[in-house]
Amino acid sequence: MKRRFPKPEVELERPEVPIAPTINVALLLVLFFMMSAPMMYHSGITISAPSLKKAGEQKKETEVKVNIHITEEGKILLNNEFVEEEVFPQLLAELLARSTSRIVIVSADGNVPHQSVVTILDLAKQKGAMKLALLKRKKRRK
After folding, report:
1. Domain locations in the chain as residue ranges
2. pLDDT tens across 24-33, in order?
3. Strand (E) positions, the chain?
4. 68 with 124: CB under 8 angstroms?
5. What CATH number has the domain spanning 66-135?
6. How far apart are CA 132 and CA 107, in angstroms?
7. Which of 55, 64, 82, 116 is the most exposed place for a label (fewest CB within 10 A)?
8. At a CB cut-off of 8 Å and minimum separation 6, what does 109 contact?
């Protein structure tokens, strides 16, 4: 004869999952996504309308271009004019003070060491350049 064990009289109850906190979390997530959705479509591009200047007001700053080129011999051309290394920092600061955009474009011949270009970029930043650009010049045909 097989011996059977009697079933326990007490049945185990299933644990109930509380519904109210689950609904609260779901509603908070919906609210979060509803509020953050417009931010995903924000482009981040701002456009400012030009302001009108008074007739008697003169503008001291103008659009001055600052182009620097370093030759293979190590000479510096500032806006296509040769400049001595001693006066170059002062002239650069004066040009940047008069410029509205303060953009400096630096180019160099092919055999110029990278350190020379980096030194010029660093000097331009120290003298007030807001934006720096490197330009690769096309080789001139002889």
Report:
1. 66-135
2. 999 999 999 9
3. 66-70, 76-78, 81-83, 103-108, 131-135
4. yes
5. 3.30.420.270
6. 11
7. 55
8. 69, 70, 71, 72, 137
